Amino acid sequence: MDTATAGRSTADAAPRRRAGRRPGARCAGLLFAGITAVVGFRAAGSDGVTPVPQLLAFLPWLLVPLGAGLLLTVLARWWAGAVWGVVLLGLLAWYAEPYGTAGEPAGRPVAELRVLTSNVEFGQGTGALIAAVRRERPDLVFVQECEYTCDAALRRELGRTHPHRRAVEGGGSEGSVILSRFPLRGTGGVPGTMGMPGAVADVRGHAVRLQLAHPMPPLPGRTDLWRRELGALREAAAADRTTPTVLAGDFNASQDHAAFRRILDTGLRDAARLTGADRTPTWPARTVPVFGAQIDHVLVSADFSARRARFLDLADTDHRALVVDLTLHRGT
Predict the structure, then answer these.
(1) What's the rounded mean pLDDT across residues 258-285?
(2) Is the dihedral angle over the CA atoms 302, 303, 305, 309 positive or is it negative?
(3) Residues 274, 285: contact at Cβ < 8 Å?
(4) Is the pLDDT of residue 9 over 80?
(5) 0.85 exceeded by the pTM?
(6) pLDDT by residue (tens digit) across 173-218?
(7) Average confidence score pLDDT of the chain
(8) Residues 228/267/241/294 CA torsion (nearest 10 deg)
(9) How far apart are CA 86 and CA 288, in angstroms?
(10) What is the DSSP string of 257-281?
(11) What is the dihedral angle through the alpha carbons of 125, 292, 299, 164, rounded to the nearest 10 degrees?
(12) 134, 122, 133, 120: which is closest to 285 by C-alpha?
């Protein structure tokens, strides 16, 4: 091969190499564009429209496609894309930090109580829940998707240990129950597609406001309803900021949803966040802890400290149960 031929071969090889890198750069660009859109809504404090609310629930897991995109940018030698990816990495790391206030409440401790919340998936997990209540011995139990047979089973099996109750009866996912060792005075609860009963408990002489949460999930085409019902829970939380409050249940939302953060902005604190477990997933139970989102929460007013949060795997339901140990403080 003469010198001229060798030069032409070398010159032809460079464009071929660049062309071979283009598919990787294009794939990385598509991945980054999708992630940028979701992170942009998170930064703007908006939940957007489908599919943004659904993707926001799994915001930390966007690190997986982001990592793939970064690898593609390196292989494609697309350095501007690599900078784009690194910026997204920093934003995801920032938003992975827990949201909301922390710190110890003022006043002396006056009562300790254990709270358990569980979505039993159309009543299918009722038997496992009853066993967990007997084992864990919570003082307050919040049960979502407790249809008629579930309601009857809880009344029959736990009526002696938890004689006080407030319920919204319903079939399928509509029924919900609050069980208590403490005397309860009923309240109007929060109206919604699914039952969200409320009560005021007499906890050793101290009034504690209880509210069960179970807004509609952000189904495609129904995200406005999901936002409205989370907004109704926010209004209930903000209506009384002087009485100690426990707001617990399946919120169908994580800390990456603006509608959920607005509830926290009323002054309530996530008990799991207070114990360092703010990213432990609770749904879908069949894939956790490998993959999932924390959408089941126990929110408490600043009158409470949280000592421990545990997540229980219950049979026959797609949610993990959450158990938290709380201490109520009151001013001296």
Answers:
(1) 96
(2) negative
(3) no
(4) no
(5) yes
(6) 999 999 999 999 999 999 999 999 999 999 999 999 999 999 999 9
(7) 93
(8) 50
(9) 28
(10) SHHHHHHHTTT-EEHHHHTT-TT--
(11) 0
(12) 120
Show contacts of 237-241: CB within 8 Å, 24+ apart.
237/211, 237/263, 237/266, 237/267, 237/268, 237/299, 238/266, 240/209, 241/266, 241/267, 241/301
Which residue stretches of the chain are H helix? 3-44, 52-56, 63-76, 79-95, 126-136, 148-158, 223-239, 258-264, 271-274
Question: How sure is the predictor about 8, in pLDDT bands with cuts at 50, 70 and 90?
Answer: low
Residue labelled with tokens 């071969």 = 9
Instruction: Give the mean pLDDT of 305-317.
Output: 97
Query: What is the chain's length?
Result: 332
- For residue 222, pLDDT beyond 90: yes
Q: Which residue has the higher pLDDT, 2 or 194?
A: 194
Summarize pLDDT for 110-131 with one digit per residue, the tens. Answer: 999 999 999 999 999 999 999 9
Tokens (6 digits) for 176: 């919900």
Residue type present at position 129: L
Token output for 66 = 């982001």
Sign of torsion over alpha carbons 177, 182, 187, 189 = negative
In one-letter notation, the amino acid at residue 98 is P
Cis status of the peptide bond prior to 289, with omega within 30 of 0: yes
Provide the residue type at 156 as one letter: R
Amino acid at 103: G
Average pLDDT over residues 28-54: 96
Q: Tell me the residue type at 68.
A: A
Q: Which residue has the tokens 């011995």?
A: 137
